[in-house]
From TrEMBL:
Organism placement in taxonomy: Bacteria, Pseudomonadati, Pseudomonadota, Betaproteobacteria, Burkholderiales
BP GO annotations: phosphorelay signal transduction system
Reaction it catalyzes: ATP + protein L-histidine = ADP + protein N-phospho-L-histidine
SMART domains: HATPase_c
Protein name: histidine kinase
EC number, UniProt record: 2.7.13.3
Length: 410
């Protein structure tokens, strides 16, 4: 619009100049005719040229045929296919990494959202160590690797393929965390093993305990026909058999609970209320030991769908282990609940005890494994059963200070 207005002003100015030129010609009419004609032509040449250019610019133009810019169908389909492929790779449930590029043969870069989440704060505790672990993988191999996370050691299956892009040799690594699946399979295997063992052992122990009691009664009835020393020896032997059989029945019965975890009955639970009940239950015991246990929830309105009885039992087992492990000083424990990245519930149980030796940390949830002289190896195994029954995971995490630290995630 501004250019059109300028053209109109230019045309008006040219017309005015021609009119002025006409007036000048009238004034110069007294001059000789030939000289007058030449001067008028020269003076009118410039405004006439300007007027012609302005009128030409203002004249309506015939529509020009625009160049065909629409994308051919084949190119459009290829573009759509590339966009769809990019979206699928971005949202793939496995973490994809490129190994080797223009930055160097060992450079590792995430390729999709799963890979970036794996390297984000709160997941891999040492991303550079994970990069080095991936860079060391060779093409064509599939391997189970382990790396440290904030929740503890996590295992993942990695597969590597070789390719060349724009003349640069690269490797493509696909990483799938399988810790939860492996734990679930291990729990099922242990549950089946414990169920078979307890069934067979109980089948053998029950008649032994019954027969030993019967033999003790028969021995008392036949006491008059036996020498006193033989009667005493038989009585001692039968009593020992009876006692050991009864103790083993009780021992095996405690393991049977691992294979008979009740089906979880989830309901909406306000964690502040659940922690208040646990505090009233456990505080007197810890005060008797000269210590304390502190519960906290952030925010106070935090709620979760879970079986409240099973979660309470899991926390009780963890706090019982903490109280038994702390010796020589006042025991202290903290139970904190909050939302982690991704909106998942995280319950952290920590204490001021000696912690778990690094060499034993991988075995503490294994049934029958215990570091206590009189331990049966049931407490932490039961914690893992209860947490998994409610769709969660439990990890032993390295503590920044002294003591043990367990992370329950739902």
């Amino acid at each position: 619009m501004a250019s059109e207005r300028a053209l109109k002003l230019g045309a008006a100015a040219s017309v005015g100049a021609l009119m002025a030129l006409t007036a000048v010609a009238d004034v110069m009419s007294a001059a000789p005719e030939a000289r007058r004609i030449v001067l008028c032509c020269l003076a009118g040449l410039v405004p006439a040229t300007v007027l012609w250019q302005c009128l030409r610019a203002l004249a309506p133009r015939a529509p020009r045929m625009e160049q065909q810019t629409s994308t051919p169908p084949a190119s459009r389909e290829l573009s759509d296919a590339l966009l769809a492929l990019e979206a699928r790779l971005e949202h793939a449930p496995i973490a994809l990494f490129s190994i080797g590029n223009a930055a160097g043969p060992g450079a590792v870069a995430p390729l999709n959202a799963s890979a970036r989440r794996l390297l984000a704060p709160g997941r891999a505790s040492a991303p550079q160590d994970l990069h080095q672990l991936l860079a060391a993988q060779t093409a064509g191999q599939r391997q189970l690797i382990s790396f440290d996370t904030e929740r503890g050691v996590e295992r993942a299956l990695v597969a590597v393929a070789a390719l060349t892009m724009q003349g640069v040799a690269q490797r493509l690594a696909a990483l799938m965390p399988v810790e939860s699946e492996l734990e679930a399979e291990a729990l099922n295997a242990w549950r089946e093993l414990v169920q078979v063992l307890t069934h067979e052992i109980m089948n053998s122990l029950t008649p032994v305990a019954s027969l030993s009691r019967t033999a003790c009664g028969l021995l008392d009835e036949a006491a008059e026909g036996l020498p006193a020393d033989i009667h005493a020896d038989l009585g001692t032997a039968l009593d020992a058999i009876s006692r050991r059989a009864a103790s083993l029945v009780d021992f095996v019965g405690s393991y049977r609970s691992l294979s008979t975890v009740a089906q979880a009955q989830p309901q909406r639970v306000l964690l502040e209320d659940l922690f208040e009940r646990l505090s009233m239950l456990l505080a007197p015991q810890w005060q008797a030991l000269g210590g304390r246990v502190v519960f906290s929830v952030e925010p106070a309105s935090l709620a979760v769908m879970i079986d409240p009885g099973q979660l309470e039992q899991a926390l009780i087992n963890l706090l019982k282990n903490a109280a038994e492990a702390i010796t020589g000083k006042a025991p202290e424990a903290q139970v904190r609940a909050r939302l982690s990245r991704g909106g998942r519930l995280r319950i952290e149980v920590s204490d001021n005890g000696p912690g778990v030796p690094e060499a034993l940390a991988a075995h503490i949830f294994t049934p029958f494994f215990s570091t206590k002289k009189q331990g049966r190896g049931i407490g932490l195994a039961m914690v893992r059963h209860l947490v998994h029954a409610n769709g969660g995971t439990v990890r032993y995490a390295r503590s920044v200070s002294a003591g043990a630290r367990f992370m329950l995630t739902f």
